Every structure is written in C-alpha cells, then in structure tokens.
Amino acid sequence: FVLPLGLNIQSFLSSSLKQKQNSPFIFACYGSCTARKNCVRLVQAFAKAFGNHPDVELQLAWRIFNSSFSDG
C-alpha cells in the first residue's frame, strides 16, 4: 500500500527552476541537541567538508532536551 504525502506540494513541483544560485548555500540543523543526535560529529563533518569556505554556511538552532519531562 502507499501512504500519500501529508502535504500538497503540487505548486512547488510546477514552479520554474531558479536562474541564479543563492550565496551562501545554507545547511541548517534545527532540533534537540542530545547525545543521540551526535551534534559534535555534525559540526566536525561540516568543518571537514567545507572548512571556512565563504559560499557555504552551517546554521544551528538547537534546543536542550530535558529527559526528566519525558518519563511521564
């Protein structure tokens, strides 16, 4: 069986492609900063791949997760 996508993206699919590349290219990570997310590895991998390249940027918006609230 097939589950349909929970979002109508038809308008995005029918839009024309960009003519010009935006700069900088932005990678973003939004979420919780917990050990299982391996945030340090994310930053290390980005630094290894792109270093201080001016056309690429990493934006981080991490939230601190408090596990004491998830135990019920």
Outline the structure in words.
24% of the residues lie in helices and 22% in strands. It is built from two helices and two strands; from the N terminus they run αβαβ. It has helices at residues 10-14, 39-50, and strands spanning 25-32, 56-63. Strands 1-2 form a two-stranded parallel ribbon. It is flat. The two termini are 35 Å apart.
What would the keywords be for this entry?
22% strand; 72 residues; two-stranded parallel sheet; 2 helices; alpha+beta
What's the helix and strand layout?
Layout: H1 10-14, E1 25-32, H2 39-50, E2 56-63
Parallel strand pairs: 1-2
Shape: flat
Tell me the major beta sheet. Answer: 2 strands, parallel
Contiguous helical run count: 2
* Secondary-structure-derived class: alpha+beta
Average residue pLDDT: 85
The share of residues in extended strands comes to 15-25%
Number of strands: 2
Radius of gyration (Å): 18 Å
- Poorly predicted sequence stretches spanning 5 or more consecutive residues: none
Helix/strand order: HEHE
Fraction of residues in H or I helices: 10-25%
Strand order of the largest sheet: 1-2
